[in-house]
């Protein structure tokens, strides 16, 4: 994320949340060892969705955002481009199936998003 975009993010979470840096709160999980199982990847994605859904008070209004997250796991022979494509297909499937949700890539998600 560029430093300009990063500086636009709130530096503190909502009052009482205990979050000093909302995105940084998940940094340890996001920067941990490679995630090789869909359950752990989905847990991390769910934490990110929950954090993003927390209302953020601004000067003129309180805003809430959501996220549609696609999860794809690497497997032997898949390229970075192929893995990114699978994650993108899973994300589009999440949007199509209702937004603000997490979908893990499978051939079925490919059919939904294609």
How is this structure best described in words?
With 114 residues, the chain is mostly helical. Helix content is 44%, strand content 9%. The chain has helices spanning 3-8, 27-30, 38-53, 80-96, 107-113, and strands spanning 56-57, 62-63, 69-71, 102-104. The strands form two sheets. Strands 1-2 form a two-stranded antiparallel sheet. It has a two-stranded parallel sheet with strand order 3-4. Helix 4 links the parallel strand 3 and strand 4 (102-104). Helix 4 packs across helix 5.
SSE ordering: HHHEEEHEH
The largest sheet has its strands arranged as 1-2
Distance between the termini: 28 Å
Total of helices: 5
List segments where confidence is low: pLDDT < 50 over at least 5 consecutive residues. 1-11
Strand content: 5-15%
Helix content: 40-55%
Q: What's the mean pLDDT score?
A: 76
Output the radius of gyration.
Answer: 16 Å
| DSSP summary, beta strand count | 4
Describe the main β-sheet briefly.
2 strands, antiparallel
Structural class by SSE content: mainly alpha
General form: elongated
Strand-helix topology:
Layout lengths: L2 H6 L18 H4 L7 H16 L2 E2 L4 E2 L5 E3 L8 H17 L5 E3 L2 H7 L1
Parallel strand pairs: 3-4
Antiparallel strand pairs: 1-2
List descriptors.
two-stranded parallel ribbon, mainly alpha, 5 helices, two-stranded antiparallel ribbon, 114 residues
């Amino acid at each position: 994320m560029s430093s300009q975009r990063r500086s636009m993010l709130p530096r503190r979470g909502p009052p009482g949340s205990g979050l000093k840096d909302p995105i940084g709160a998940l940094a340890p999980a996001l920067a941990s060892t490679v995630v090789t199982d869909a359950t752990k990847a989905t847990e991390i994605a769910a934490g990110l969705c929950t954090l993003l859904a927390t209302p953020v008070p601004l000067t003129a209004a309180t805003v809430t955002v959501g996220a549609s997250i696609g999860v794809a796991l690497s497997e032997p022979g898949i390229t970075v481009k192929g893995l990114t494509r699978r994650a993108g297909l899973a994300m589009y499937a999440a949007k199509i199936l209702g937004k603000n949700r997490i979908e893990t890539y499978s051939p079925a998600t490919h059919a939904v998003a294609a």
